[in-house]
Amino acid sequence: MVPRRLSALVVAVVVSGFAVLLLTGEYASDGPVLLALGEDRGVHLGDVFVLTGWALALLAVARLLAAGRHGDG
């Protein structure tokens, strides 16, 4: 069986990789620019949702790891 920490690391790396791909790419629902970082760069409304999802996923991984240490999971 794969140790809990290794599983959590894999999930964190995959979720982070997807977040980077979404933040650096262009997609149909980018939304309005909230913060311009250059002529062709900026933080879009869609980026906020990607970052929020990424943060929630990593918090869930951290909680699962903490639960495993305390014998709750």
Concise account of the structure shown:
The chain is 63% helix and 10% strand.
Top keywords for this entry?
2 strands; mainly alpha; 73 residues; two-stranded antiparallel ribbon
Helical run tally: 2
Radius of gyration over alpha carbons?
A: 16 Å
Q: Summarize model confidence as the mean pLDDT.
A: 85
Largest beta sheet, briefly?
2 strands, antiparallel
Explain this structure to me?
This protein is mainly alpha-helical and 73 residues long. It contains two helices and two strands. Strand 1 (33-36) and strand 2 (42-44) form a beta hairpin. Helix 1 (4-24) packs antiparallel against helix 2.
Q: What's the topology here?
A:
Blueprint lengths: L3 H21 L8 E4 L5 E3 H25 L4
Antiparallel strand pairs: 1-2
Helix pairs in contact: 1-2
